[in-house]
Amino acid sequence: MQLIIVESPTKARTLSRFLGKDYTIEATMGHIKDLPKSQLGIDVAKNFKPEYVFIEKRAAVVGKIKKVAKSASKIYLATDPDREGEAISYHVKEILGDGKTTRIVFHEITKEAVEEAIAKPRDIDKNLVDAQIGRRVLDRLVGYKLSPLLWKKVRRGLSAGRVQTVAVRLIVEREREIEKFKPEEYWEISCEVKPKKAKNKVFLVGFVGTPEGKIEVKNKDDAAKIVSHLKKSSYEVFDVRKREVRKNPYPPFTTSTMSQAGARLFGWSAKRTMSIAQRLYERGFITYHRTDSAYVSASALAKVRELIGTDFGKDYLPPSPRFYKVTSKVAQEAHEAIRPTDLSKKSDDIKSKKYGSDAKLLYDLIYRRFVASQMTASVYDETTIDVYAKNGETYLLRASGQVIKFDGWRKVIPAKKDAEAVSVLPAVVKGETLSLIKVDSEQKFTEPKARYNEASLIKTLEQLGIGRPSTYAPIITTIQIRNYVEKEEGKFMPTPIGVAVNDFLMEHFPEVFDYQFTAEMESDLDKVADGKNKWEESIKKFWKPFEKKLTSTENHSKRVKIEVEKLGLVCPKCKKGELVVRIGRFGKF
């Protein structure tokens, strides 16, 4: 008997479907060791040595694995292909010994991929384990040391996280930008015109300025003068420009772009999207879902190109495969993009009763995105018409329109009706006179940047080089659980307590929660994973200034006063006081 050890029972069941009776598959139910809950668990004096302990609720699981392992001829550690998975395998190997234990890695749970992995076992990648240890130690030091300080200086029961605090900072700073923003008035002016010889060919031209340059219309009086001039003007086509526009497909999904799409299209939280993706991965439908790579294997490229040629025809198949550059600042390990494992399985094969309707939706999204990523560009004919309005002075107006010439990848991912909707313009020539139908003007005001939603927050964190595929969803979940931020119409707003904690930490620990420094720490851990850095060196770089700041802040900082959220309502009991919102262990009350 050969033993395969994975994390989850679902993954174990999927493997057992195609591996046969020669294999026994056991699940660890996640990590079996961690730092202790009741103490720091890090010996700072001994080069930050972590003191891992067994997780109590895993005792029965560990006991069973030990028992089964005794009668196994070979033991394969088949946990997930990332740092967390490597750390789980490392701790399992510690309890089972070296003798018959090897590590296997696969990025999709299919018979072919698993058999290939079994044929090519390897040792535990200690660099990946060290990167996981480094992150765990770093996060424990921040949380364990800062939380008591927050209890003392802000409010009891608070906690701080290294990356979560940076996410809260982004949200607080955006809110302050919005509060400081002063709207500026401007006016948009447009004319409905038509060729004199053509009926029913009305089109809209927007006011640009004069032939010499753009004019910004800032108030009602200026707008009225221009409108008056335009009403008395004669109109003539000054220029017609045509060009072909090609729009290439999007790359296949990474964790970040998939989470953003889930939020944008379905209103899902990152946690929900990742949970659905986990189910699809563990049941063998998609490749590993924690990845920041756009890489696709040669065999998968060959299969998708064959499908495109067969199902859509040669016009939809580029001469050679498309290769995408990684947009993330640092892509981790040798992962693939998120894609279907078997292109013959369509979304209709994901039975809603068995897997849930959400699984079907996400699978369809992943499937279409992957197929489209290897198709030809969509092609548009774009026309720009410049019109002169003459009445002593000459004003310039402009219209742009686009007509799809060839749908290409849009065959698989059709544009939303309003997403690429551009007016279709009539055929006109330079020098042609036009008739004015009417002139419109509309008052508008500049708007501040929008509050972050889940999609834009993840995108910003990724652009800053903060967080990794495995951390986006936990970051967003944690800052809400801690009541540091809340959602209003799907957008994040900081709570008074979130503002207080942010301001306290930014006043006393600006370097620790600096965007660039946080990104550098993430990059340092990536270098540990690549074998280029020692995790202890990364922690030392962080610890010395952090420890110094801890001491001075504890001794010299003042207690923070938290802004009270007022409801604007009179107390129904005393009829005098004003009702306010308090935050307790379970949220607002």
UniProtKB/TrEMBL annotation:
<dbReference type="Pfam" id="PF01131">
    <property type="entry name" value="Topoisom_bac"/>
</dbReference>
<comment type="similarity">
    <text>Belongs to the type IA topoisomerase family.</text>
</comment>
<dbReference type="InterPro" id="IPR013825">
    <property type="entry name" value="Topo_IA_cen_sub2"/>
</dbReference>
<dbReference type="InterPro" id="IPR006171">
    <property type="entry name" value="TOPRIM_dom"/>
</dbReference>
<dbReference type="InterPro" id="IPR000380">
    <property type="entry name" value="Topo_IA"/>
</dbReference>
<dbReference type="InterPro" id="IPR034149">
    <property type="entry name" value="TOPRIM_TopoI"/>
</dbReference>
<dbReference type="InterPro" id="IPR028612">
    <property type="entry name" value="Topoisom_1_IA"/>
</dbReference>
<keyword id="KW-0479">Metal-binding</keyword>
<dbReference type="InterPro" id="IPR023405">
    <property type="entry name" value="Topo_IA_core_domain"/>
</dbReference>
<keyword id="KW-0460">Magnesium</keyword>
<dbReference type="InterPro" id="IPR005733">
    <property type="entry name" value="TopoI_bac-type"/>
</dbReference>
<keyword id="KW-0413">Isomerase</keyword>
<dbReference type="InterPro" id="IPR013824">
    <property type="entry name" value="Topo_IA_cen_sub1"/>
</dbReference>
<dbReference type="InterPro" id="IPR013497">
    <property type="entry name" value="Topo_IA_cen"/>
</dbReference>
<dbReference type="InterPro" id="IPR003601">
    <property type="entry name" value="Topo_IA_2"/>
</dbReference>
<keyword id="KW-0799">Topoisomerase</keyword>
<feature type="domain" description="Toprim">
    <location>
        <begin position="1"/>
        <end position="109"/>
    </location>
</feature>
<protein>
    <recommendedName>
        <fullName>DNA topoisomerase</fullName>
        <ecNumber>5.6.2.1</ecNumber>
    </recommendedName>
</protein>
<dbReference type="InterPro" id="IPR003602">
    <property type="entry name" value="Topo_IA_DNA-bd_dom"/>
</dbReference>
<dbReference type="GO" id="GO:0003677">
    <property type="term" value="F:DNA binding"/>
</dbReference>
<dbReference type="InterPro" id="IPR013826">
    <property type="entry name" value="Topo_IA_cen_sub3"/>
</dbReference>
<dbReference type="GO" id="GO:0003917">
    <property type="term" value="F:DNA topoisomerase type I (single strand cut, ATP-independent) activity"/>
</dbReference>
<dbReference type="GO" id="GO:0046872">
    <property type="term" value="F:metal ion binding"/>
</dbReference>
<dbReference type="Pfam" id="PF01751">
    <property type="entry name" value="Toprim"/>
</dbReference>
<feature type="domain" description="Topo IA-type catalytic">
    <location>
        <begin position="125"/>
        <end position="551"/>
    </location>
</feature>
<dbReference type="GO" id="GO:0006265">
    <property type="term" value="P:DNA topological change"/>
</dbReference>
<dbReference type="InterPro" id="IPR023406">
    <property type="entry name" value="Topo_IA_AS"/>
</dbReference>
<keyword id="KW-0238">DNA-binding</keyword>
